């Protein structure tokens, strides 16, 4: 065995280890025999399939990876570029660890010490699917992920191998002429170490992993469960076996994008438009923080437009602010698609949102004052603008405090935590951007500013109540 592989084990129970098979098909043998124009380095939304698989597993809580690969130089280079990999990767070259050698799997069983998630790299899948598998592991049982939607009936290999399932239990693999509506096996399987430890039993097909044989043997005892990959549940899986599959996988990735705090307008309007801009930002190589700055600059231009004080400038400024709200969705989308989320990026996004909102309130106040200068009540919009800016700034500070309490698990009771989560989920809503367009169209920006001043103060007061001393646990030093 290669000495470089015999590194210190990560002694964590449960499903924390993944075994990747980038050079072979889990059930069909060598991927070179497939009618496929894609490979481990094929790009899906700017990231190769191998790298995307690794980063998805890392994001889902996998803590060590073992790669059974042929020529591995390009794969190692792929992991060395782009988002940072923080979990250990063990490289096991197939020339030293052949798939048809029982000793390979006995060694892996010793390394796993629990469960192994075995996967190919010819697919894109969600973090939620892996998290569900980690949650669903049961002692001594294997899990097969099934795709419920059949596809490519003219090419059986592209659609996966069909499964016979009784209730949620796998009974056997189905013949090629079996019912087309039957679920199909995804190249994502959870194996207990005990099953891999019995590797010496039976015969092996040359250059093929014995996983299919293991599952058939375990199915006799009812020890193989089937979990369906479902788009609506966020546990989706998409084969990428052909060039046409790449666009399907990219569409699924974009459809899966969702922020932690989304209102009605975000969900049904802003997100529909933001994906087009996100594609442009990805093509241009923009980082999430760069996208945040672009959205902020548009917001500042909008604030300056409001400051002009004319009806046309107000409408144009409101539309610009709506554009800024659309692009403000893109920084999170770029971050999630490219695995470049960071605490600083999240803070910068929230901070710049609040700075832009305060600039908008100040711009509207200045524009209304300019239009009413010399009149007895010209001071009122300035007062409302000052209150709105103050309330927004105070709300931002209180939200920061609530986030620190949440990250430190510092809420006193679950009820306090629920209130904190509720307020944090609603603070980032961009729904009011559409209302601003309507107020501008009806020449009622003074009413918008009044509501903004009252709303920001009310929100700040609620946040003060949420993070009151009695809601926060006392930490012991």
Account of the 3D structure:
The protein is elongated and about 90 Å long. Residues 1-12, 29-35 and 152-158 have low confidence and may be disordered. The chain folds into 2 domains: 14-253, Alpha-Beta Complex (Spore Coat Polysaccharide Biosynthesis Protein SpsA, Chain A), CATH 3.90.550; 259-471, CDP-alcohol phosphotransferase transmembrane (TM) domain (Four Helix Bundle (Hemerythrin (Met), subunit A), Up-down Bundle). A hairpin with a 2-residue loop joins β11 and β12 (169-173). The protein is α/β, with parallel strands linked by helices. The protein has 16 helices and 15 strands. α10 (288-307) runs antiparallel to α11, α10 runs parallel beside α12 and α11 (311-338) packs antiparallel against α12 (343-372).
């Amino acid at each position: 065995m290669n000495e470089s592989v015999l590194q210190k084990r990560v002694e964590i129970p449960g499903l924390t280890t993944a075994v990747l098979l980038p050079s072979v098909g889990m059930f069909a043998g060598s991927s070179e025999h497939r009618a496929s124009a894609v490979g481990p380095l094929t790009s899906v939304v700017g990231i190769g399939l191998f790298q995307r698989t690794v980063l998805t597993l890392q994001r889902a809580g996998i803590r060590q990876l073992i790669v059974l690969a042929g020529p591995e130089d390009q794969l190692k280079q792929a992991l060395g570029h782009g988002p940072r990999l923080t979990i250990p990767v063990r490289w096991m070259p197939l020339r030293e660890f052949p798939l048809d050698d029982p000793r390979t799997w006995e060694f892996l069983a010793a390394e796993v010490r629990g469960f192994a998630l075995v996967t190919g790299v010819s697919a894109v899948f969600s973090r939620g699917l892996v998290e569900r598998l980690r949650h669903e592991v049961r002692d001594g049982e294997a899990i097969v992920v099934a795709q419920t939607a059949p596809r490519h009936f003219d090419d059986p290999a592209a659609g996966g191998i069909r499964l016979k399932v009784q209730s949620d239990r796998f009974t056997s693999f189905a013949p090629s002429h079996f019912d087309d509506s039957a679920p199909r096996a995804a190249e994502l399987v959870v194996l207990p170490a005990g099953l891999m430890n019995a590797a010496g039993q039976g015969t092996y097909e040359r250059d093929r992993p014995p996983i299919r044989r293991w599952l058939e043997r375990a199915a006799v005892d009812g020890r193989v469960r089937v979990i369906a990959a479902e788009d609506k549940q966020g546990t989706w899986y998409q084969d990428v076996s052909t060039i046409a599959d790449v666009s399907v996988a990219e569409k699924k990735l974009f459809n899966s994008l969702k922020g932690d705090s989304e209102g009605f307008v975000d969900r049904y309007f802003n997100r529909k438009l933001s994906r087009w801009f996100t594609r442009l930002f990805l093509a241009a190589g923009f980082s999430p923080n760069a996208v945040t700055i672009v959205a902020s600059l548009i917001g500042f231009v909008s604030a300056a437009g409001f400051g002009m004080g004319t009806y046309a400038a107000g409408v144009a400024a409101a539309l610009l602010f709506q554009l800024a709200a659309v692009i403000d969705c893109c920084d999170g989308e770029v971050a999630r698609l490219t695995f470049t989320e960071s605490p600083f990026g999240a803070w910068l996004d929230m901070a710049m949102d609040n700075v832009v909102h305060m600039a908008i309130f100040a711009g509207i106040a200045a524009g209304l004052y300019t239009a009413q200068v010399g009149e007895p009540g010209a001071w009122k919009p300035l007062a409302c603008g000052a209150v709105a800016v103050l309330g927004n700034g105070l709300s931002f500070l209180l939200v920061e405090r609530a986030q620190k309490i949440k990250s430190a698990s510092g809420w006193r009771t679950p009820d306090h935590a629920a209130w904190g989560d509720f307020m944090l989920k609603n603070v980032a809503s961009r729904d009011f951007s559409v209302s601003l367009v309507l107020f501008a169209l009806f020449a009622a920006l003074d009413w918008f500013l009044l509501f903004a001043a009252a709303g920001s103060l009310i929100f700040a007061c609620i946040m003060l109540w949420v993070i009151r001393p009695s809601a926060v646990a006392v930490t012991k030093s």
